[in-house]
Task: structure prediction
Amino acid sequence: MWWEAMNILQRTAFIIACAATLILIIQIIIMLVGGEVEADVSADATDISGATDVDLDLDVDGDGVPDGAASDGVSSGSASGAAHFGFRLLSLRSILAFLAVGGWVAYTVGYVLNWYVALPIALVAGFAAACLMAAAIIGIEKLQANGTVNPNTAISKSGTVYLVIPPKRSGKGKVSILVSERYKEYEAVTDSEESLPTGAAVTVIAHLGDNLLLVKKTK
Result:
């Protein structure tokens, strides 16, 4: 039989490859439909950057300039970039890519080569697939970041109240603003003495941070 004709490496690789491929397909569908790049337990890129950017204020050569300052622009950026790639390489999807591709290669090559030759080839192929997956995830992150609308561009724009805004900054409501030819929803507060009801026309005065806008009723 087909199953009995396989050696232990092929059987193990086949099971791992099938399971990893199925889960990877589900993960990719979730990523494309849900719009989120990473839903696993990998660290956030900004946290990695903060952890790797260490201030070195030592002036070893006595020239009055901290030795760490001269190299911060290069070493910090490259270190944070490498750390970001490293954590994406250890993410769930990258590991699944490693198991799926490595498993299928081990299963296929096992028909023509001994296990001690097929296994290293499968490991190399799986690692290459994991690297490609990590690079793809980073690329998608960059595309999503580039498509993000800066709330500061909403200043002076007109919009409509989507959720009632309480008076005198006593609570948050929501507004719909046309920014960069797209309607975006933001949380909003107002200094008005009266609450701004749903459907009221408003003008954005300022961006208060964290996607929170200060608005006033349009006269």
Summary: The longest strand covers residues 182-190.
